[in-house]
């Protein structure tokens, strides 16, 4: 498996144009932007987060903000009524329970309103530069297709993928697989013809070319 993992990482980097440079941002912004990203496209998230943080920048400001104004600012993220309530509750929790600071630990992050393993992992990696492995739908899909795991949900995938992938790659895996999933390993009609991972891909062997 270690040799397979190294090949997967190197070939994905080649497909996406190099190593996935992990960006960093203030933890509160990462937390709120990740909540806004749920069930929507990246461009919608960027638009909503940009408008929100141009007006409100801290947990205290969002906690006090009128709910209808929050809804207007994040409307492009979809499910904006639910998300507006959620980010307001998160902001209040941070003030009441964590002195207005985003906690660094996974267990504490998971106590926040609507925060699951993926969101907690994103905050740890992109907010604190800690070792975590956020698993979204891209990571879940691709890791199953490649045969790194056999799981039914992103939540189930995370612990198994952490066992399969060496820790040194954890920070990069999320961004790398998101980009690879948008360019090559598409949700529908994956571009297997241009993929250099066919020889280690269980999906290709079992679904695309079972005659091989």
Can you walk through the features of this model?
This protein has 212 residues and is an all-alpha fold. The chain has two domains: 2-20 and 134-208, Helix-hairpin-Helix base-excision DNA repair enzymes (C-terminal) (Endonuclease Iii, domain 2), CATH 1.10.1670; 27-128, Hypothetical protein, domain 2 (Endonuclease III, domain 1), CATH 1.10.340. It is 60% helix and 0% strand. The protein has twelve helices and no strands. Helix 2 runs antiparallel to helix 8 and helix 5 packs across helix 6. It is elongated, with a radius of gyration of 19 Å. It starts with a helix and ends with a helix.
Write the layout of secondary structure elements.
Elements: H1 2-16, H2 27-36, H3 42-55, H4 59-64, H5 67-73, H6 80-97, H7 106-109, H8 117-128, H9 137-145, H10 154-164, H11 170-183, H12 202-208
Helix pairs in contact: 1-11, 2-3, 2-8, 5-6, 9-10
């Amino acid at each position: 498996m270690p040799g397979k993992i190294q090949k997967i990482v190197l070939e994905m980097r080649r497909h996406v144009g190099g190593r996935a440079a992990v960006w960093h941002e203030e933890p509160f912004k990462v937390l709120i932007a990740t909540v806004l990203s749920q069930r929507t496209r990246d461009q919608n998230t960027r638009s909503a987060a940009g408008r929100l943080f141009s007006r409100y920048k801290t947990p205290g400001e969002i906690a006090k903000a009128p709910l209808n104004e929050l809804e207007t600012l994040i409307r492009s993220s979809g499910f904006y009524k639910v998300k507006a309530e959620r980010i307001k509750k998160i902001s209040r929790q941070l003030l009441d329970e964590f002195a207005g600071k985003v906690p660094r630990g996974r267990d504490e992050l998971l106590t926040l309103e609507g925060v699951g393993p993926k969101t907690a992992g994103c905050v740890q990696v992109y907010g604190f530069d800690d070792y975590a492995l956020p698993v979204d739908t891209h990571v879940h899909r691709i890791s199953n297709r490649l045969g790194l795991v056999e799981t039914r949900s992103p939540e189930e995938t995370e612990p198994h993928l952490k066992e399969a992938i060496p820790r040194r790659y954890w920070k990069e895996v999320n961004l790398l697989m998101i980009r690879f999933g948008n360019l090559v390993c598409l949700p529908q009609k994956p571009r297997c013809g241009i993929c250099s991972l066919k020889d280690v891909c269980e999906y290709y062997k079992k679904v695309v070319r079972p005659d091989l």
